[in-house]
Amino acid sequence: MPPTSPIWAHFNKLGHVAGFRQARAQCKYCNHELNAAANKCIAHLKTCSSASITVLQGFFGPDFKLSAKQRINSHLPTEQNNIVTIKKQPQKSINNFVDKITSAEQNEAELLFAQAVYRCGLFLSLSELEPIKILFQKLRPCFKLPSRKALSTTLLDTVYEDTKDEINNLIKSTDYICLISDGWSNMLQEHWTNYLITTPRPVFFSAHQTGEIKQTGENIAADIDKVISQIDHSKLSAIITDNASSMKKAWKLLAIKYPNIVFLGCVAHSLNLLIGDIMKLPWADSTIKNGKKIVKYFKSHQIPAAVLKRYQRSSYDKQISLKLPVKTRWGSSAICLNSLQVNQLAIELTVTELSRNQTVRIDDDMRSIVLNDGFWKDVDNLLKVLNELVIGISMFESDTPFLSKVLDWYYNQLESSVYVFDINGNNTSIKNIIKKRWESIYHPVMEVAHLLDPSFHGCHLTSNSMDRISQFIQKYYSDNAVIIWTQILNYRRKTGVFANKLAWETSDNVDPITWWSGNFSDSAPELTQVAKKVLSIPTSSAASERNWSAFAYIHDKKRNRLRADRVFKLVYIYSNYRLQMPRETPEWKGFTNGFDKNTSLDGGVVDDEIQSSGENEESDYDDVNSSSENEESFNDNEADDSDVSC
């Protein structure tokens, strides 16, 4: 057969191979070698188990059938199994290939989209942005985004009413509630008053603009009375506001109509004022002023700032920014002094180097401050004092009711050695300042809460405390005063129904309200109700003040044309969504690096972020209570401490 035979498409010619007389060939499929004779190659291909059926039928014809061995090796079905049953599929409608949405699904999707916009505080024009349209067109072509008008009107009203129903149901299901209030002026100088209700977790209840109404004691009382009329005032334990004189006047007017409601000032506000009292001391005032000089110097001088950063990296392996205190927050002075303390080595090295530099001279005044050991000693003493007070502010501005801890905190301050130190060779104590400020903080309900908290059990009560507690019971619980007082005496002595040893052993393992409800709701129901009511009272109006950050976020410069009613609804949805989620205050955590009552600023709470030199030197960080600096307390221009808000 001539070499052009088609069989050679399936074999490789090897030529003459040692040991064989004839030329050899190799099968391309199984690599079998044989004599290069066409008829032998054809015979091999016919039985080759590695050749595919396509190759075999292409060479031998379509009628070629595989041998049994070839079927097994090629995994082909036998003739018996070669019949395939094809199930006829029903013809599909064109609707199966087109995205469609029902009217109910469209409405539900619009509502979910609106909820996301309101709860996240997004712009109402979000649905009109082209990238958002493209995204939803890709995800769900048939879904039509709601218009801006719908988001501003019908959908907003629907979500607001749903949220309002949830909040009202939550308030109704709570045994005892408290009302907290605060005032604020926005960027348009419109004065707002808002009200939050604690359940005990705070919820945003209402807010409105005061307009042309002057914030006198009478007007404030009338405004609060309107809010009380909207709730079940028999469940209202206390009303907490700031300490303005006009507020105290409103308390007296409201107490006539509601004699069973306790009126309290903000404890956190009072501690801020206490810090202000301390900062007025000559040595403290001098220390903070010199500290601010150092911070401002490095913020306003390029080369000294660069040298300082070099020493920070070499000394601490990071750049630790210097902080300036916020004008309206004396507590922020602790952060300023702490930033100086942790940078002391780098600052001293920088000043020493620049003192020898012939081209860049450092101010003599700056050098004398930094290289003065007395200054750094004063920084250390003042920081220890502020640290103790800032920890107290952190605790009492919490949403958790800590009224029983106020008395414990006060006596711990009196026993603390932090407030006694040497200043210029003179033994100095500031405990008298604390005692004087305590007079404006104290309320008998604090002693009642301290007594009824089983973890304290009135450990700090004095000889006159029981007299004040009995007067409190007679004033606020006159109907059951005898029964309640009898139960208090047994409770204090751990006699009668209060002799339960296991109950006292678990007092540190559960919160006080749970302890009372679980142990004595049946055996001492009258005192249990008093305990639940008193122990649910918060110590601060800070939650109401924090709510202004939500107003400032929703009604900002880009959305300053929003109407007041629309602003309220947007903030109502946004705030209540945030308030009902588990929260660690991010403002306070960033301010103090998350320290609690058992930790201290002495360990060097620092800001690892590098600050730009062009930032506002009076607002390097959020203030303690994360509220606007433009806030206005209910001030009737009377002589009082109300120039500083909580």
TrEMBL record:
Classification via Pfam families: Dimer_Tnp_hAT (PF05699), DUF659 (PF04937)
GO molecular function list: DNA binding; protein dimerization activity; zinc ion binding
Keywords, comma-separated and alphabetical: DNA-binding, Metal-binding, Nucleus, Transcription, Transcription regulation, Zinc, Zinc-finger
InterPro entries, per the entry: DUF659 (IPR007021), HATC_C_dom (IPR008906), RNaseH-like_sf (IPR012337), Znf_BED (IPR003656), ZnF_BED_domain_contain (IPR052035)
GO CC entries: nucleus
Chain spans, region Disordered: 599-646
Domain BED-type: 2-55
Compositionally skewed regions (Acidic residues) per UniProt: 605-646
Predominant place of localization: nucleus
Location in the cell: Nucleus
Protein name per UniProt: BED-type domain-containing protein
Organism lineage: Eukaryota, Fungi, Fungi incertae sedis, Mucoromycota, Glomeromycotina
